[in-house]
Each structure stands twice: as C-alpha cells, then as structure tokens.
Amino acid sequence: MPPVVRFAPSPTGYIHIGNIRTALLNWCVTKRAGGRFILRYDDTDTARSRQEYADAIAVDLAWLGMVPDVQARQSERMALYDAAAARLREAGRLYPCYETEEELERRRTLQKARGLPPVYDRAALRLTAEQKAAMEAEGRRPHWRFLLNHRIVEWQDGVRGPAHVDTASLSDPVLIRADGGYLYTLPSVVDDIDLGVTHIIRGEDHVTNTAVQIEIFEALGGSVPAFAHHNLLTTVSGEGLSKRSGALSIGSLREAGFEPMAVASLAVLTGTAEAVRPIATLQDLAALVDLSRISRAPARFDPAEIETLNAKLLHETAYADVSQRLSALGVGGGEAFWLAVRSNLVRLADAKTWWDVVRGPVAKGEQDREFLHRAASLLPAEPWDENTWGAWTQAVKDATGAKGKALFMPLRQALTGLDHGPELKALLPLIGRERALARLGA
Ligand SMILES: Nc1ncnc2c1ncn2[C@@H]1O[C@H](COP(=O)(O)OP(=O)(O)OP(=O)(O)O)[C@@H](O)[C@H]1O
C-alpha cells in the first residue's frame, strides 16, 4: 500500500527552514514510493491562526515543488473531534477537571518540594457527582483530560530505532480546554485516522506526544501509523527556531534570491550522514533520504552555507532550466552568455550585473591609453568565437612584449570596467568588436 503522509503546521507564522525539513522529509518518503502528501493546517488555535499564514505556507511549499494531493483544515472538522471526544467519554477515557491554573501550579510546587515529579494527581477522578454539580453551579467550566493507561508505550521509530515512553511518568493530557477549544493532541489523531495517514514523520519535539497519541489511536480503534522523529534544526548559535520570530523563514530565503533546490538540499541533508551538497531535483533528493541515517543530535543550520550551495547549484544549471527567469530579469545573450557567466554567480540575479557589463557602459579607470590603442588596432575582424581572445592577446603580447597580469589586467579593466569576472574568452564574443573598440578608446 503506498504511504500517506501529512505535513501539519499551525498557521501561526511564516514557516522556517526547520518546518520545511519536516515537510521535505515527508514529501521525499512518500513520493519516491508513489504515495500521497496531505497538507493539514492545524488551526484549532483560533486566536493565533491566520489565513495569511496558511496561504503563505502553500506558497512556500509550491516554491519548493511540493503541491499537496489533499488539503485539510482542522477548523472545518470540529464535528469529527466532537464525535471522538464523545466516544472517549463513553469509554471512560476522557474526564472533566475543574482545577484552575493557579491550583495546579500550587500543587506542582508542593510536589517538587517533596521531591515528587510534577505529574497531575488525578484528583478530579475522585470528585463526586454532587461536587461536580456544585462547581458547575459556581460557574466553573471543566477542561477534559485523557486517562492514560500508565504503561510502557513502544514503537519502532524510523529515525531513533526502538523507542519507548512510560506514560505513568506523564500527566493525563488536557485534550479540551475549559472554553471548549481542542488542543492539538486529539484532532491530530482523529485526522490521521480519518485521512488514512500511514507514516508520521515529524520533529523530535513530538516524541512524548507520540506515546500519548498511540494510546489515543488505540482508544479510538484506529490503526497506529509508523512514526519517525527527526532531529531539529537550530541556529548557528544553537537556538531553536520559531515561526513567531520569523527567523530563517522560507519566504525570506526566497526573497533573498536563493534557488529552491539549494534551500531544499540544505534543509534535508544538514544533520544527516550524507554530505551537504546541492541536489538538482526533489526526485534526486528523495532518492538520498534515509531516515535511519539522520543524526540524533540537533543540527546547526548555517545560512552562510546557502550562498555556497546556491552558487554551486547555479554553476551546474543548464540554460534551458533558467532561460525564462533570465528573460524576466532582462538578461539576453542566450546560452553562450549563460555558460560564460554561470560559474561567477552566487544568485541568479547576479547574471544581470554581468549582462550589464556585456552591454555597457562600463566604468573607466586609470588607463594606459597607448597600450590599449595598440591592442585595439590588433583586434581581429568578426566573426568571433572562443578562440578570438587567445589569438588576440597573443598578437598583443608579440607586439608590446607585455605578458601575464600586465597583459591581461589592463585589457580586462578596459573591456569590463572590473578587475575580476567571467573568462574573457567567453565574454569577448558577446561584447563584440564595436563595443570592444569603443572601450579600448579606439
Ligand atoms: N527547528 C525545527 N527543526 C526541524 N523541524 C521542526 C523545527 N521546528 C518545528 N519543526 C517541525 O515542524 C512541524 C510543524 O510544526 P509546528 O507548526 O508546530 O511548528 P513550530 O515551528 O514548532 O511552531 P511554533 O513556532 O509556531 O510554536 C512539526 O513536525 C515540527 O516537529
């Protein structure tokens, strides 16, 4: 059976490189096996979720080449969660609690003072019907906790190998808040069952959730998917990433002019046993993904590496793959120009700078006018090709005795206005005889 995976961000900010690592790993695992990819907006937190963020997530995924097969929004699926909550209540697995946050905090402080773990003591289970009625009459509204089975929950983790959590060490999780709103835990399981999710690949921030959710899958009679928890990406200084801070957002990397595959390669290969390098397509990247070779330690993400990777990727990119974007930038010169400049680019937009150099005007610095006049008089007739530069500079060398840097640098500076840049044997035919003569001051 082909896999069904989901990427389930909360639309509470712009997704960052860490979130996209999760999305890409899911995409790679499912698409190479002919499976489906669900984009599910976990937007039960109505105060913080925004349509604008949901739209931006879809744009970010599409930019990286991920178009979901199915989209779902939790805010539209409340009836399913209500039905599941009713079933858990009937089964005695969901119970009302009336403690306020302050009461709970006081109890936790006491537990810690006695050297006990700050785990919820299930006091609400001992409330009588009268006590509950009295609290309701006072206007207190319950929140609802899931009754854990207090057992060792085990699973074979795709990244971490055999994994287990003793749910006796956990507080019964709150599934429904006093205002009736659902926390993430229950809707996620209900949707995974309803949408037929077979593999859950997510960050290791969810390991404890997994133990709880496996108990909920079982309580609802759903089949438990395979789980894999990958390491998280951090900043270079080791800090976590958050949608709320906006740091390293996919949108900002796109606006900075990076190639989607440079971003994708770095997001997926960082913190794995694979060497970090630019991979040309998602398909090729998918073939490299091996969940069991993802490191257990958090992986530092260095934005400076994107520049290196982006440059390497462009250096190997074929003209056909960028011709439309070059036209949109106002860059001409066809394939010959692309091949001449691509190894000098860090970002695609840099091509425009070199195109401006070809077209001119170029900056005029200090010039040895006599030398340049001599060189101009030796310029061969067109048509020019890759051999023109070599033949011409040989002629200039023979005539003037200049060699090495003394020969090439004045010519480069006069022809391009710069002391560095693409190889002149490729650039000279694009500049052409007329412009070359003018730049040499002839
Ligand atoms: N730094 C990270 N590195 C790798 N994966 C991450 C990172 N942060 C979150 N994820 C993963 O991204 C997915 C979407 O998570 P979620 O929407 O909760 O994002 P978040 O960045 O953790 O949230 P927020 O900043 O809004 O609290 C989850 O599977 C989560 O494990």
TrEMBL record:
Could you name the Gene Ontology cellular component terms for this entry? cytoplasm
Q: Which keywords annotate this record? A: Aminoacyl-tRNA synthetase, ATP-binding, Cytoplasm, Ligase, Nucleotide-binding, Protein biosynthesis
Q: Where is this motif: 'KMSKS' region?
A: 240-244
Q: Where is the Aminoacyl-tRNA synthetase class I anticodon-binding domain?
A: 365-440
Question: Which superkingdom?
Answer: Bacteria
Answer whether the UniProt record assigns the keyword Lyase to this protein.
no
**Which positions in this protein are listed as binding ATP?**
K243
**Its GO biological process terms?**
glutamyl-tRNA aminoacylation
Cross-referenced PROSITE patterns: AA_TRNA_LIGASE_I
| Localization, UniProt | Cytoplasm
Residues of the Glutamyl/glutaminyl-tRNA synthetase class Ib catalytic domain: 4-306
- Subunit annotation: Monomer.
**What job does this protein perform?**
Catalyzes the attachment of glutamate to tRNA(Glu) in a two-step reaction: glutamate is first activated by ATP to form Glu-AMP and then transferred to the acceptor end of tRNA(Glu).
The molecule here is called: Glutamate--tRNA ligase
Q: What gene does the UniProt entry assign to this protein?
A: gltX
